[in-house]
From TrEMBL:
GO terms for biological process: inositol metabolic process; phosphatidylinositol phosphate biosynthetic process; signal transduction. Belongs to the inositol monophosphatase superfamily. Mg(2+) binds at E68, D85, L87, D88, D213. PROSITE patterns: IMP_1 (PS00629), IMP_2 (PS00630). PANTHER family: INOSITOL MONOPHOSPHATASE (PTHR20854), INOSITOL-1-MONOPHOSPHATASE-RELATED (PTHR20854:SF4). It catalyses: a myo-inositol phosphate + H2O = myo-inositol + phosphate. Keywords: Hydrolase, Magnesium, Metal-binding. This is Inositol-1-monophosphatase. It comes from Paracoccus denitrificans (strain Pd 1222). InterPro entries: IMPase, Inositol_monoP_metal-BS, Inositol_monophosphatase-like, Inositol_monophosphatase_CS, Inositol_monophosphatase_SuhB. Its EC number is 3.1.3.25. It is an enzyme of class 3 (hydrolase). Pfam families: Inositol_P. GO terms for molecular function: inositol monophosphate 1-phosphatase activity; metal ion binding.
Length: 262
């Protein structure tokens, strides 16, 4: 049975997801400039965050908040905060690609204790609570059992628009791709982590990310039996801006390759 907090999160994610699906149907019909289409998606993004914030704040008015669109707000309870990305995969959404998600995490005393990642386009709801396992549409999920890199698929985010982490990511790819069954770049970090949790990928890494990109997915992977760390292992994967995650059999080898210095 889900806790009261997780049920609140699921309700908020589903409500925002319905709004986004409605807007997503309009994206393919937009015959406007890039700026115009971008503005349309920004409105959809902001509306989704408004819906989530209203639902969560109504139910738990004393919790803190950090959201991609509205930033950080302290709560009367300094030990708890929501970490929210209302539309992870905005570029996919803008281009009519059905691979994006609503991501909501609850943090308590610096630890993620509950997570929801909702892929509304495919009606896939990933949930987790600390100590209670991870689920996809109420079915228990586990990370992959593969033990060989050459049999395994990994995911990452390739920087765009001249972002500074591109050289390091290209070096990672040059080391990893000859040793694996493939690397995927699907453009939604929360779903990359959800796919590691459900065994669709063996691992995921990325640099230059924000807490709301990965907070919910981190708990999904851990509760599905996987390992998650920052690329710098002495840092927090939620706050450091980098992450490496994998099943237990491959984590050390995979993380070692990502952490290798040229």
């Amino acid at each position: 049975m889900a806790s009261a907090n997780l049920n609140i999160m699921i309700k908020a994610a589903r409500k925002a997801g319905r709004s986004l699906v409605k807007d997503f149907r309009e994206v393919e019909n937009l015959q406007v400039s890039v700026k115009g289409a971008g503005d349309f998606v920004s409105r959809a993004d902001r509306e989704a965050e408004r819906i989530i914030k209203e639902e969560l704040r109504t139910a738990r008015p004393n919790y803190g908040w950090i959201g991609e669109e509205t930033g950080e707000e302290a709560g009367e309870d300094p030990t708890r905060r929501w970490i929210v990305d209302p539309l992870d995969g905005t570029t996919n959404f803008l281009h009519g690609l059905p691979h994006w998600a609503v991501s909501i995490a609850l943090e308590h005393k610096g630890e993620i204790v509950a997570s929801v990642v909702f892929d509304a386009a495919k009606d896939e709801l990933f949930t987790a609570e600390r100590g209670d396992g991870a689920f996809l549409n109420d079915r228990r999920i586990r990370v992959s059992g593969r033990r060989q890199m050459i049999e395994s698929i990994f995911a990452t985010g390739v920087p765009f628009a001249g972002r500074g982490t591109l050289p390091a990511t290209l070096r990672d790819l040059s080391r990893l791709m000859p040793l694996t069954a493939g690397v995927r770049r699907w453009g939604a970090a929360s779903l990359d982590l959800a796919y590691v949790a459900t065994g669709r990928y063996e691992g995921y890494w990325e640099r230059g990310i924000k807490s709301w990109d990965v907070a919910a997915g981190i708990l999904l992977v851990k509760e599905a039996g996987g390992f998650v760390e920052s690329i710098r292992p002495d840092q927090s994967p939620v706050e450091s801006g980098s992450i490496v995650a994998a099943n237990p059999q491959l984590f050390d080898e995979f993380a070692g390759l990502v952490r290798q210095r040229d």
